[in-house]
Amino acid sequence: MTYASQQNMIDRFGEDELIQLTDRDSLGAIDATVINRALGDADATINGYLAARYTLPLANPVPEMLERFACDIARYALYDDGVKEAIETRYKDAIAYLRDVSTGKADLGVSDTSNKPASTATAQMSSTTPVFRREDSQGFI
Q1: Which of 23, 44, 49, 73 is the most exposed place for a label (fewest CB within 10 A)?
Q2: pLDDT at 1
């Protein structure tokens, strides 16, 4: 499942910026391979956080905030050097929110947490009487 498309990126950030970020062959056009790789990486990042609480892929409709997060994460990744402060801030805000979702501090507004453990779940251990012991019934080892 993809959270954002190339067109979503164009709508949010403009074609000129995306040409500058993706046109590695100086053709004057958006390189779809480059942008789709960045969007795929953004999806993987988002899924890494969501998998802690949600069954993936999410049922439609996917919350709109995930489209924005995917675009912000992909845009940040496309900037190799010289990331503007506003772009870095948007990236960090997206990651912080996703981290809060993964720990249960924030919610996506979808109710698909039925088969995932609660964030307060802890590991439990149980055992039966051991079959082998260091000492037998007469005290011998």
Answers
A1: 44
A2: 73
Digit-coded pLDDT (tens) for 100-126: 999 999 989 886 544 455 455 556 666
| Domain with 44 in it | 6-103
Domain-embedded: residue 129: no
Length of the chain: 141
The reply to whether 83 falls in a domain is yes
Residue 119 lies in a domain: no
Residue 47 domain-assigned (yes or no)? yes
pTM: predicted TM-score of the whole model, two decimal places: 0.77
Cβ atoms 108, 52 nearer than 8 A? no
CA distance 62 to 104: 18
Identify the CA nearest to 9 among candidates 85, 76, 99, 80: 76
Q: Give the C-alpha distances (Å, rounded to integers) separating 132 from 135, 136, 137, 138.
A: 9, 9, 11, 14
The number of domains in the chain is: 1
Question: DSSP string covering 71-103, please?
Answer: HHHHHHHH--S---HHHHHHHHHHHHHHHHHHH
CB 75 within 8 A of CB 10: no
